[in-house]
Write a structure and sequence with these properties.
It is a single chain. The protein is α+β, with helices and mostly antiparallel strands. It folds into four domains: 16-221, Up-down Bundle (Growth Hormone, Chain: A), CATH 1.20.1250.20; 229-301, no CATH class; 332-414 and 615-715, Growth Hormone, Chain: A, CATH 1.20.1250; 420-612, Sandwich (Immunoglobulin-like), CATH 2.60.40. The chain is built from 26 helices and 17 strands. The strands form five sheets. A four-stranded antiparallel beta sheet has the order 2-1-4-5, with no helix packed on it. Strands 6-8-12-11 form a four-stranded antiparallel beta sheet. A four-stranded antiparallel beta sheet has the order 10-9-13-14, with no helix packed on it.
């Protein structure tokens, strides 16, 4: 477990090795796909108006990363016809995975989710294929890296791979965001062609990986390859896919049962719902395992081959380290990265909640994130050349957890504000916003029915200046006719000079008979028309360049229901401009559109909004710098640690098990992070992720002690 070098000079020189450069490019190739499934895809689907429940469905596509150990044995054992003889076992599988990734991204690029369910299914197929092929690429690259060099070199390869991986993630994340935004697409102004071009560009970027695969050499490894018949391999693959299909079918059909139970008992608690989904998933996995086991027992596959493929790699690990040490090692692997991964899941949402723009976040991550992740990875690899890996693992664990405290400082960097005052007619209500400005209030329908608008106001504590005020009209139910209105274009219904280069999303509300396929809502300004999107809540929106709004002669927006170029109904709204205001206001308040108020109802209507105030950009850069530095260092040490645990005889399988376990627990808990934040707030959430790291430190010390004892016994 110790990697020593002769000196600092040789430690630095190791990074100039040809093999380190290879891993940099392969890491870049591995980093491209993952965000095309997660953040970038979520933004695309959100702009296309896809319901959040459907967006959540696409998280399935990434399950391949957590369960890649299931088919990793096939990658280790199965030769690829023709290609294996030409390229070698690792490069053949690597090329196939990269070609499939490009195909999957192209399938997604040519799927416009806004056109209907069939296109959404097509995108789902592309996303699942992308997740599967990307996970396969990871399996092969990890095996290639371990087989490429001796143990002493693994830390260097791990750090350069990690650096390349992070650069790839930046390109597919911030890069894709910049490209899509530059092509005009935005919330309320969805442009399919912009996302199509963006994803095709990402597919083209994957050519870097293919070129690297064709240029590099196959690693020379002394391992025993089994000489089974070709039909044995085909039967093994068939059993694997039957098990996968049984898992999918079991999960789909169990969904009907769980939905029936939820409806019967009216279960709404988020934790219980999470438990239901967990049981559903575990049950489906058990069905797949049972089906696979039965097929093996029935002789559908060579039993000896199945045992050597799936059982021997696990048995080898326990044989080398003993049951006790092996279990403790797996425990450390499963929880080592839990602090920073859980915090990282919600980081972009957190930055947005602090009112930083997507451009600010992307720029900060792209520049400072890349630079300091590279520095962290390089530093981790360098230190691992000079010190015991377990000591470096301890340092990495301390940094990974403690750096989450910086985010608390970022939250506290904003000024405190007074209570939010909500005035409806003659009634006045006060409500306190949370640490990032969100607030909500329930008001009886009868109170709202007595007025036509509400006013929201707030200000900084100990300050009589900078009062933020917003007046929001709302619709009241009228059974006789449809109703429609345009909402204020900004919080004060005035467009300032500093907004000139932006596009403003103009919102309105429609209540009445559902629109037919031939009907649509169109916003017009001085004869120029802008098609609006209408969501399920009755809110319609369209993006209009601020310059067009400022230069308008009438300053009057018109919204109309159009059918075959015939206007069925219209409403008007006037706004103003303020050319004297060249910078954004220090404090603003936003209120979400209210549902249509029913005067006859005894229910309460929930009013929600957000106080928009500035937070320190210096804190943002500091948080991103330190977080990426710590993550890069800890990641490089951890990858080298995992590599040292693998056997050359089962490289792909064992590393796939370790890397899957590394992300499985954090991803499960990370999916629950939004609910945790909603209940305890951001400061307590980040404090919790820091405290989680304390048991990890104890576990690292324990593992180091057990490894020393194990090495002593075997020496």
């Amino acid at each position: 477990m110790t990697t020593q070098s002769t000196g600092w000079k040789s430690a630095f020189t190791a990074f100039l090795d040809r093999r380190a450069l290879i891993m940099l490019f392969l890491g870049f190739s591995a980093g491209i796909p993952i965000l095309l499934i997660f953040s970038s895809l979520s933004l695309w689907l959100g702009e296309a108006g896809i319901d959040k429940s459907a967006v959540t469905f696409f998280s399935w596509a990434a399950l391949g990363y957590s369960f890649k150990f299931v088919w990793a044995p096939l990658i280790d054992e199965l030769p690829v016809p023709v290609l294996t003889k030409i390229l070698g076992r690792r490069r053949a599988w690597l090329l196939i995975a990269q070609v499939l990734i490009i195909c999957a991204i192209c399938i997604m690029a040519f799927s416009n989710p806004a056109l209907g369910q069939s296109y959404l299914y097509q995108m789902a197929v592309g996303a699942v294929l992308l997740g599967f092929s990307a996970a396969t690429q990871d399996i092969v690259i990890d095996a290639y890296r371990i087989e490429l060099a001796e143990t002493q070199m693994q830390t260097v390869l791990a750090s350069t791979y990690n650096a390349g991986y992070r650069i790839g993630m930046i390109v597919a994340g911030a890069g894709a965001l910049f490209l899509a935004a530059s092509l005009g697409t935005a919330k309320g102004n969805y442009i399919y062609s912009a996302w199509k071009i963006t994803y095709l560009a990402m597919a083209a970027v994957m050519l870097v990986g293919i070129i690297t695969t064709l240029v590099i050499r196959e690693p020379q490894v002394n391992r025993v390859y089994k000489d089974y018949k070709r039909t044995d391999y085909y039967r093994l693959v068939a059993v694997f896919f039957v098990a996968v299909i049984s898992f999918v079918l079991s999960y789909i059909f169990s969904g009907t049962l769980t939905e029936a139970i939820k409806s019967q008992f009216e279960i709404s608690d988020s934790f219980l719902l999470f438990c239901f989904e967990a049981l559903r998933f575990i049950g489906s996995a058990a069905v797949a395992l049972l089906v696979g086991s039965l097929l093996v027992k029935m002789g559908a596959v060579n039993k000896k081959m199945a045992f050597e493929t799936w059982v021997n790699p696990i048995a080898d690990f326990f044989k080398r380290y003993g049951v006790k040490l092996a279990l403790v090692l797996l425990l450390l692997i499963g929880f080592y990265r839990i602090s920073d991964i859980i915090a990282g899941v919600i980081s972009n949402v957190f930055y947005q909640d602090l009112n930083f723009t997507k451009e600010q976040i992307a720029e900060a991550v792209k520049i400072y994130g890349v630079i300091f992740s590279l520095v962290g990875g390089f530093l981790g690899g360098l230190l691992a050349q000079r010190m015991n890996i377990m000591k470096l693992m301890f340092v990495g664990a301390v940094l990974a957890s403690s750096t989450n405290l910086i985010f608390i400082g970022l939250v506290k960097s904003g000024q405190q504000i007074n209570d939010v005052n909500v005035t409806v007619g003659q009634q006045n209500y006060k409500v306190q916003s949370d640490e990032v400005g969100y607030w909500k209030l329930k008001v009886p329908s009868q109170v709202l029915a007595q007025a036509d608008e509400l006013q929201v106001a707030t200000q900084y504590k100990d300050s009589s200046q900078n009062i933020a005020v917003m007046t929001l009209p709302y619709l009241k139910q009228d059974a006789k006719q449809s109703s429609m209105q345009i909402l204020p274009v900004t919080s004060d219904n005035s467009i300032a000079l500093y907004e000139k280069n932006n596009s403003l999303v103009i919102r309105g509300q429609y209540f009445g008979q559902p629109l037919s396929e031939s009907q649509k809502i169109v916003l017009s300004l001085d004869g120029q028309a802008f098609d609006a999107n209408l969501d399920k809540t009755g809110v319609f929106s369209a993006a209009i360049p601020a310059e067009v709004l400022i230069n308008s002669a009438s300053k009057q927006l018109v919204a109309g229901v159009i059918e075959n170029n015939q206007v069925l109904s219209t409403t008007q709204h006037r706004y103003t401009t303020n050319m004297n205001l060249s910078t954004a206001k220090d404090l603003e308040v936003d209120v979400q559109p209210l549902p249509v108020v029913n005067a006859q109802s005894t229910d309460e209507v929930e009013i929600t909004g957000k106080v928009i105030k500035p937070y320190s950009s210096l804190w943002l850069y500091f948080a991103i710098i330190v977080d990426n530095l710590a993550s890069g260092l800890a990641g490089a040490a951890f990858i080298a640690f995992l590599s040292s645990l693998t056997s050359v005889s089962f490289t792909a399988v064992q590393y796939a098990i370790f890397s899957s376990l590394m992300t499985l627990t954090p991803k499960i808990l990370g999916g629950y992070s939004g609910t945790i934040v909603s209940n305890i707030g951001y400061p307590n959430f980040f404090l919790m992720t820091t405290l989680i790291g304390i048991p990890i430190l104890i576990l690292v010390v324990w593992v180091a002690k057990l490894l020393r004892e194990h090495q002593h016994i075997n020496s």
